Amino acid sequence: MRSGPGKTDGLLLGAVLFLTVFGLIVLYSTSAYNGQVRFNGDSAYYFKKQFFAMALGLAAMYAISSVDYHILKRFAVPAYLVSLLLSGAVLLFGDAYNGSRRWLSIGPLSFQPSEYAKPAVILLLAGTVSSMSRKKSGLTIAAVLLMVLPIVGLVGTNNLSTAVIILGIAVIMIFISNPRYLPFLWMIAGGCGFLGIFLSLEQYRLERLAIWRNPEQYEKGYQTMQGLYAIGSGGLFGRGLGNSLQKLGFVPEAQNDMIFSIICEELGVFGAISLMLLFLLLLWRFMVIATHAPDLFGSLIAAGIMGHIAIQVILNIAVVTNTIPNTGITLPFISYGGTSVLFLLAEMGLALSVSRWCSYPGKRQS
Fold first, then answer.
1. How far apart are CA 170 and CA 332, in angstroms?
2. Which of 80, 107, 127, 352 is paired with 274 by a 20 to 30 Å CA distance?
3. CA gap 88, 85 in Å, rounded
4. What torsion do the CA atoms of 14, 19, 21, 23 make, to the nearest 10 degrees?
5. High-pLDDT (> 70) share of the chain, %
6. What's the rounded Cα separation, in Å, for the pair 94 and 80?
7. What is the C-alpha separation between 51 and 338, in angstroms, rounded?
């Protein structure tokens, strides 16, 4: 029998709030030039939109953190079905920007259903796996993974990087809930084979691999090269906040996927490492919450959120440093994107809700 709820995890809450404020400061510094050029001298254009989304996200985080997370289990399947409907609607009625059809518009507001799909999948898998018996066969694991393939397929049609993140979240959650390793070796082998076939189906995907290997030889490698110049010019302590040169039109869409390169230029290696350590603090708190959650459902929620943040941070930094081919993945809490930050903060509310029910040394119960 579980005890009543206590206080939320203070370290996790502090890290999230610091990241949101830091993200707004860095976003304004990075996007001011683009805002002036594109929106009639409005240097705060991106900042204002992000601030509005963050305000909504913080409200959602507070509301969700105040709810008993056990109640959410009954909404896991309906939430996932809604994500399927929204992702299907994108294919039929979605808005296209920069050649990608990823947005749905409702009046003056637009959002990306693929961002909503991430917490929906986390809730679905946490609810499904926690309801199963402790012993899970290879067929059972495969059946659970098959549940998320429809959303992976729908999202992957126009947004391969987000589909990879969703699939990665699913694999991590199933792996954590199952002590057997052999089925996952087969999954990894099958996934690598599928990825090879998938990449070979479209010429532009193979072109990305060629650009990754030699970005200086291709016109489309311009963004990567400029990002690397920004990283290299930052030195140990950077040029100073607001003093980046590469954000002045040299790094295309610097406020989006490539914002980490501007952080390196303005704050240097010291600032970049400090930010990565802050993300590590966040992941550590998720791990602590997952370990001390009162049930498997709560543990898997925290583990799924941990997997989501870890995958996205690693892939974004790897892309910016040209460690992997460009995949268009944002840096959590930092990159511009209202839908992304809104649902990220909603996920943080989920983790904080689970933390209220944890019992671990040093935590006082109310």
1. 19
2. 352
3. 5
4. 180
5. 86
6. 19
7. 8
With tokens 């009162």, the residue in question is 294
Asked which of 7-16, 22-31, 210-219, 256-265 is least confident by mean pLDDT, the reply is: 210-219
Beta bridge pairs of residue 109: 106
Q: For residues 188 and 88, what is the distance between their CA atoms, to the nearest angstrom?
A: 28
- In this structure, are residues 341 and 330 in contact, taking their beta carbons and an 8 Å threshold? no
Q: Write out pLDDT tens, residues 293-344.
A: 999 999 999 999 999 999 999 999 999 999 988 887 899 999 998 899 999 9
Residues with Cβ within 8 Å of 302's Cβ and at least 6 positions away in sequence, in order, are: 286, 287, 289, 290, 293, 351, 354, 355
CA dihedral 324, 195, 150, 86 (to 10 degrees): 30
Q: What is the DSSP string of 237-283?
A: T-S-TT--STTTTTSTTTTTTTHHHHHHHHHHHHHHHHHHHHHHHHH
Number of residues that this document lists for the chain: 366
Q: What's the token pair of residue 117?
A: 């799909």
Q: Are 145 and 166 in contact (CB under 8 A)?
A: no
Cα 71 to Cα 87: distance, rounded to the nearest angstrom = 25
In this structure, are residues 91 and 103 in contact, taking their beta carbons and an 8 Å threshold? no
Which tokens go with 205?
């995907």
Please state at what angle helix 113-130 crosses helix 76-93, rounded to 10 degrees.
150
Q: How many CB atoms lie within 10 A of CB 214?
A: 9
DSSP state of 332: T
In tens, the pLDDT along 288-305 reads 999 999 999 999 999 999
In degrees and rounded to multiples of 5, residue 327 shows phi and psi of -125, -5
Tokens of 224: 């990567």
Start-to-end CA span in the chain (Å) = 17
Read off the DSSP letter of residue 7.
-
Q: How far apart are CA 127 and CA 145, in angstroms?
A: 13
Cα separation of 82 and 31, whole Å?
A: 33
The amino acid at residue 27 is L
- What is the residue type of 306? M
**Burial grade of 159 (CB within 10 A; 0-12, 13-18, 19 or more):** buried
Contact 343, 116 (CB under 8 A): yes
Look up residue 326 and give its two tokens. Answer: 């460009």
